[in-house]
Amino acid sequence: MQTSFQAVGVVGAGAMGRGIAQIAAQTGCPVWLFDQQADAVARAQQEVGAQWDRLVEKGRMDAASAQACKQRLHAAGSLDDLAGCDLVIEAVVERLEVKQALFSQLEGIVAADAVLASNTSSLSITAIGAGLRHPQRLAGYHFFNPVPLMKVVEVIAGLRSDSAVCDRLAQFARQMGHTPVQAQDTPGFIVNHAGRGFNTEALRIVSEGICDFATVDRILRDQVGFKLGPFELMDLTGLDVSHPVMEAVYRQYYDEPRYRPTVITAQRLAGHVLGRKTGAGFYRYADGKPELPP
Ligand code: NAI
């Protein structure tokens, strides 16, 4: 398949970066994955490799394709290894100054016409691109967790993004088997704006003592029909990701009371009780399965 990009760089090999690297490699593009943590890329390669093996076992991918995908997923030892990429997608920590500094550094490495994309959940694309020499080449590219299964991606144009860049990203999303949705550069875009009603109100129900969190989950999952309840979802995402998103949307809307985060998630974040990734969040995950705390 002729893809919109010839070589893809992914920065950040956490939950999102590894999923994006997986689906990008499946298009046939070589992918270069970089993380500032020394062993993160090797772990990601191992985990994504195991995903491809599982697809082979289930008969959804042939063994030769899985092998070819593994060979296309390269470990980058430094950002300089991304020099030949015509698309670089960042999925690093949700902090404006970190993303700004990363893209400024990348501008000195990649070609002048390479496209830069941010997987930010809630930060302004216009603000992320503010210090760039070529801000028109930056757009938001917001995937969802787990990336291979959640087949939607928001394509977000900042005030200075080139519409042709957004079109190429949308086309590449389709080539990865995802459905692109155009969103304006507003706090939380579409999904994390709508998600305030889901997460923030659920937290408020619990903080007002209306019922416990497991009851909220059970009703919204089993009766209303969501795949996961809000507390299960926060545990899956991790409060190190979810809480900053709540704060970012609240602040960007000038402290709009509707979006005010609760102390429930702030406390857990401070105590490093983050969700599945730390073995305990709202639920405990002794064997990977959620259990209610005693
Ligand atoms: P994560 O914590 O699993 O992974 C982040 C990775 O980035 C870590 O391995 C870390 O070492 C690396 N990193 C941090 N700063 C770096 C830098 N300057 N250079 C290179 N590597 C760096 O986080 P996750 O969940 O993958 O989220 C990443 C981004 O994706 C965030 O912006 C988040 O808001 C966004 N996002 C997260 C979703 C989720 O459900 N987890 C969903 C959609 C977007």
TrEMBL record:
Sequence ranges assigned to domain 3-hydroxyacyl-CoA dehydrogenase NAD binding in this UniProt record: 8-185
Keywords: Oxidoreductase
Residue ranges annotated for the 3-hydroxyacyl-CoA dehydrogenase C-terminal domain, each copy included: 188-285
Annotated GO biological process: fatty acid metabolic process
Entry GO MF terms: NAD+ binding; oxidoreductase activity, acting on the CH-OH group of donors, NAD or NADP as acceptor
Keyword Oxidoreductase: yes
Residue spans crossing the bilayer: none
Protein's name in the database: 3-hydroxyacyl-CoA dehydrogenase
